[in-house]
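Quick check before the chapter quiz. The format below is the same one you will see on the exam, so make sure you can read both the input and the output lines.
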Amino acid sequence: MRREIASSPDHLQSYANLALIQLILDQRNAAMKTLEEMVRKNPHRGADELAAKTLEATGDTRAAAEWRRR
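Here is the expected output.
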């Protein structure tokens, strides 16, 4: 995933996939950093929404709501 992100930093799904893997592996801090990186490198509403959907997919509706408020 990291190689894919490095070669295509505008491909949002790569970040989301990596964050999901990190969340499944109970690496929440790493996942949040991955989502922050996604938004920092792609500063548009779509990146924020995908971050929220990624968190929602793991049941973290509170964090998803925070991303939507940003």
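If your answer matched, good. The mean pLDDT is 93.
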